[in-house]
Design goal:
Length: 163
């Protein structure tokens, strides 16, 4: 039970830290003069839409993961709503990963067409395919874990009937 309490406090800390960092990520670029050479529509997309959408997706991942941990801490990890929270966290992880695939492929294609494509571009951290696929794998793992918890709930109910 101490591990669940520690996990609960850790998730709550990450949740609050993310909210503060998301606010800073959205507000700070408006005070930076580096974006003055872009036109208004580029600035709108780069400074408002992309960071807000990215922040909302990560917020939803952390929100549902936090609800899952809090409900598990109470003692209902096999409850239907608890499984739903884990599954929704996995779905938002998949959305976060899949939404970035065209962006990464577009950046690679841009550098290939411009003739400046460096095979080490992908591995130098500029385009990190590893984190993209890890997010997708984590999302699939969360969904799989929700299915396993659902199966274990069915087995638990059958076990109650036989005893």
């Amino acid at each position: 039970m101490k591990v669940l309490t520690l996990l609960k406090h850790f998730i709550n800390f990450i949740f609050v830290a993310f909210i503060l960092s998301a606010i800073l990520m959205i507000v700070v670029p408006f005070y930076n003069q580096a974006y003055t050479d872009y036109n208004a529509s580029d600035t709108f997309w780069m400074l408002i839409i992309f960071p807000v959408v990215h922040s909302l997706i990560i917020f939803m991942i952390l929100f549902y993961l936090r609800k899952f941990v809090n409900h598990s801490h109470i003692g209902t990890p096999l409850d239907k709503s608890t499984r739903k929270y884990l599954k929704m966290s996995g779905v938002f992880c998949l959305i976060s990963g899949l939404i970035r695939i065209p962006e990464v492929i577009g950046i690679i294609e841009f550098y290939r067409i411009s003739g400046e494509f460096d095979p080490l571009l992908v591995t130098n951290g500029f385009i990190d395919f590893g984190s993209l696929f890890y997010i997708i794998l984590i999302g699939l793992f969360f969904i799989y874990l929700a299915i396993v918890l659902e199966s274990s709930d069915v087995i638990r109910q059958e076990n109650k009937l036989t005893i």
